Amino acid sequence: MIKLRQSILLAALVLLPALAQAADPVVGRWKTIDGETGKPKSYVEITQAANGTLNGRIVELINPSKPNPTCDKCKDDRKDKPITGMEIIRGMKAEGGGKYAGGTILKPDEGKVYKSKMALIEGGRKLEVSGCVTFICKSQVWERQ
Fold it and tell me: Where are the domains of the chain?
């Protein structure tokens, strides 16, 4: 019995570094900050899909303009769905060095989907998120929670 426990403990210690490396550094909960007002808007949970892409979902709205708002301006599968729980980042791919691209981001209050890129900044404590149309990009800095 003791040898079995020691074997399990040894296996766990060997696998722990591999499991820690499996999660991308951007995975986690982020507080979004409105680029115009500087006020917090929501909490977004970024997760890694089985295929390695990253997706982000609004898990909580901070002071919504109305209770349980929906994306009435969306034109895709998110139309008229609740904003809380909505996937707003889709298909982001790691480029290395804390940079991500190739995905899209939805701005629910506009219902518009933009090409997006992200970059970890300030030692991974903050995330710069940009939405772009052609060569014009607007960015926000999110804070890790």
Answer: 24-144
